Amino acid sequence: MLPRADPNYNRLFKLRPLVSYLNKQFGKIPYSRDLSLDEQMCSTKARHILKQYMPNKPHKWGYKLFVLCDYKGYSYNLEVYTGQENYPKFNDIDIGASVPLMEHLYDRGILGLGTVRRNRVPNNQFPDEKQMKKEKRGFIAERISSYKSTPLSITTWKDNKIVTLLSTYAGAEPKSMLKRFDRQIKTRVDVDCPFVIKEYNRFMGGVDLLDGLIGRYKIKLRSRKWYIWLLYHFIDVSIVNSWLLYKRCRHKNNELVNYTLANWRAEIGSTLTSTGVCTPTRGRRSNSLEALMKRINRTRPTHIPTKDSRTDNTGHIPRRQDKRGRSKNKDCFGKFHTQ
After folding, report:
1. Is the pLDDT of residue 327 over 70?
2. Any residues with CB less than 8 A from the CB of 165 and at least 6 apart, and which?
3. Which H or E run includes 176?
4. Strand pairing of 140-147 and 150-158?
5. Which SS3 state, helix, strand or coil, does residue 191 take?
6. 3-class secondary-structure state, position 266
7. Are 244 and 217 in contact (CB under 8 A)?
8. Where is this region: Disordered (predicted)?
9. How many CA atoms lie within 13 A of 101 on its CB side?
10. 268/260 Cα distance (integer angstroms)
11. Which of 43, 222, 238, 292 has its CA 20 to 30 A from that of 210?
């Protein structure tokens, strides 16, 4: 354990070996083409410095994690947010996209898409927020540019709120139509929707799907140790990942999925509790040589000292023993407890 003043000090040092091992095992599965990175909460109200408050989450208090998932909910990598003590210059860390991030991914052959803050867009020529609110629902504005030979498409769309997305492969075209309820005319109307919104909604729900699968049958044991809550969360993630891999293999072989998530967890628990336990069998005892040797070699309690030593009519000198024990004399139990 490093001292707290050391720049390499990690608040997660108790769980760091486990997190590294899980990421190594999860990453052995071939990565899907469509991945999503989002925040996840390990719900708790324990008093700890790592606890975060996120008002937009179903569980507002807990430990925050960054999780890399595919659109089906399988987790390839996870990291616990431990604060900014080791990175003081990054005082505005956010999960949203940015132009340098898209350029960094594009140079490595990765196409990106994500929401972006309007003040992070350089040379922003979009209508301001007041003007956008005056536009009708479904209004779309798009700007196409490049940054260090990286093609960028920035799209703003007005729905219930104003949404701005940044992408290196998707834009406003081709548009599609969505149904929205209009309060003024009391009916559903058609609203324009850009292609980038459809792509975002299609592949961005992997972490939310993982949260839903964990929340159905999560471990609800309580503990006074803060890291035990994270340990239970890692167990839940591992179980859900194993079930998703089981489903993937069954679908690949055109076979039916015989286990639901509840049955899968029950089967894992039954297997772990029955490992190493010899279940008695009905019927007559086996007369095989192996079974006979097991019965003969079974250790039984013996007298200390042995009966031969006690009855050989020879005076014995006490001898020092490495293990604790007490001498046992014949018929001493009744006299000791009755007199």
Report:
1. no
2. 97, 113, 114, 115, 116, 154, 155, 157, 196, 197, 200
3. strand 176-182
4. antiparallel
5. strand
6. helix
7. no
8. 300-339
9. 15
10. 12
11. 222
